[in-house]
Amino acid sequence: KDGAYPVHRYYNAAWSTVSGIDGAWLLGDPTDASVFYAYDRATGNFLKSTDMGATFAKVGTPGASDFKKFRAVPGRTGDLWLTVSSGGKGGLKRSADGAATWPTLPGLSTCNAVGFGKGLPGSSFPSIFAYGTVAGVTGIFQSDDTGATWKRVNDDAHSYGVAGGKYPAGG
């Protein structure tokens, strides 16, 4: 249950409890070791620490979600991606400003997972992979234009494990 697990910080050879973020999902900024982010899916609040996780302050409100994990783009400061879904509806949001604003990306009517892979040759941004629904079709999608458009990379015969809800017998 969210809220049941306190967050502890180890710094200067001592442990301390970080207040105000119990049950939140935490992630460090990939390029700035002093910055940490926390998302509380129950309240929909996003928090940020600029003092190596000692204190957190609310910086944005992307909304409540059934999911709590978010991702940071490797090698980029403050570029965060969050799947927001409640009751099976929602999409993918991106903050390019360190969690202050969270516009919803076009195309994905639902999104259950997001990740990054090697970008196209000459691209300065990684490819984005999402498990979700585009134009009524659920599958694994790839974007090479920072989420502006999506193309399906799996098909009904190749659903990559349980993508598409097809669980193996006995599973």
**Lateral arrangement of strands in the main beta sheet:** 3-4-5-6
Sketch the topology as an H/E string, one letter per element. Answer: EEEEEEEEEEEEE
Helix content: under 10%
Work out the strand percent.
35-45%
Oligomer status: single chain
**Mean pLDDT, as a whole number?**
87
Distance from N terminus to C terminus (CA atoms, Å) equals 24 Å
Kindly describe this structure:
It is a single chain. This protein is mainly β and 171 residues long. It is built from no helices and 13 strands. The strands form four sheets. Strands 3-4-5-6 form a four-stranded antiparallel beta sheet, with no helix packed on it. A four-stranded antiparallel beta sheet has the order 10-11-12-13, with no helix packed on it. A three-stranded antiparallel beta sheet has the order 7-8-9, with no helix packed on it. 0% of the residues lie in helices and 42% in strands. 30% of the residues are buried. Residues 166-171 have low confidence and may be disordered. Strand 11 and strand 12 form a beta hairpin.
Can you tag this structure with a few keywords?
171 residues; single chain; mainly beta; four-stranded antiparallel β-sheet
Task: Outline the fold blueprint.
Blueprint: E1 7-11, E2 14-18, E3 25-28, E4 36-40, E5 45-49, E6 57-60, E7 70-72, E8 80-86, E9 89-95, E10 108-117, E11 127-134, E12 137-143, E13 151-152
Antiparallel strand pairs: 1-2, 3-4, 4-5, 5-6, 7-8, 8-9, 10-11, 11-12, 12-13
